[in-house]
Amino acid sequence: MKAKLDLHTHTISSGHAYSTLGENIIGALSAGIEVMGMSDHASSMPGGPHPFYFLNLKVIPDIMQGVRILKGIEANIMDFNGSIDVKPYILEKMDYVIASLHPPVLIPGEITQNTNALVQVMQLEKVKIIGHPDDGRYPIDYEKVVLEAKKTKTLLEINNASLNPEGSRENTHENAIEILRLCKLHEVPVILGSDAHIAMDVGNFDNCMVLIHEIDFPYDLVVNFDVNFFSEYTQIKIHP
Predict the structure, then answer these.
(1) How far apart are alpha carbons 183 and 151 in whole angstroms?
(2) What kind and span of H or E run contains 149?
(3) Could you give the count of Cα atoms lying within 13 Å of 138 in the half-sphere of its Cβ?
(4) Is the dihedral of CA 73, 218, 28, 5 positive or negative?
(5) What does the alpha-carbon distance between residue 94 and residue 39 come to, in Å, rounded to a whole number?
(6) What is the spatial distance between Cα 56 and Cα 78, in angstroms, rounded to a whole number?
(7) What is the pLDDT along the chain (240 residues), one digit of tens a residue?
(8) Measured between alpha carbons, how far is 154 from 233 in angstroms, rounded to an integer?
(9) Is 78 left (phi over 0), alpha (psi -120 to 50) or beta?
């Protein structure tokens, strides 16, 4: 089964990534990606772009070199009530939002606090994806989060970069396995995210696929394999 979409990618505008949008598109084409989402970090991340950057995404064509481009943002969860650092006037311009916990922005709390942050942020209409919920620096009640994701039709991400042994996130393999186990049990779809910070990683889900095979996770619960399923589930328009 071949993945057709990757919605978690970063350009040099994020401040700590290394490729341009054009280079990422070349990476997407090389990986067979048909739908690529731009999800640069919101402004509270050190080095992140000014809000004007996201307002100006309108200049980017919907299709570039045959690749459908979705215009998104990786928002920072700012507190344990699920607030994010994206103003409503920017949110309305976005195709989608990934909401993530990042230690440079929010110091990890107790399990009830971290869990509440994810549950509350899933109530925001534009938040379609929870980024790298596997990060063990933020203890999470995964069953509660999975059930809320099912209720709100929010996709929990299985993050390929998290599963890199050289990464900074903790206990990611064990936590991603637990997320997949619970999603399989409750029949909740997931999304694979490359979290690419360089063009050659766009569409790279090798680490994710090891876990998918390890627990025999159903392919029909992975939205990356079916663009129409992704569009119907998230209500994100694919065909401009």
Answers:
(1) 12
(2) helix 142-152
(3) 27
(4) negative
(5) 10
(6) 24
(7) 899 999 999 999 999 999 999 999 999 999 999 999 999 999 999 999 999 999 999 999 999 999 999 999 999 999 999 999 999 999 999 999 999 999 999 999 999 999 999 999 999 999 999 999 999 999 999 999 999 999 999 999 999 999 998 888 999 999 999 999 999 999 999 999 999 999 999 999 999 999 999 999 999 999 999 999 999 999 999 986
(8) 9
(9) alpha
33, 6 Cβ separation under 8 angstroms? yes
**Do 25 and 14 form a contact (C-beta atoms < 8 A)?**
no
* Contact present, 70 and 95 (Cβ < 8 Å): yes
Residues across the chain: 240
Supply 158's token pair.
């299985």
Longest pairwise C-alpha distance within the chain: 46
**Residue 54: both structure tokens together:** 């996201």
Domains and their CATH numbers in the chain:
5-234 (3.20.20.140)
Give the residues across from 17 on adjacent strands. none
Helical packing angle, 142-152 and 172-186, nearest 10°: 50
Token readout for 17 is: 């990534």
Q: Which amino acid is at 76?
A: N
Torsion of CA 229, 233, 235, 239, to 10 degrees: -10
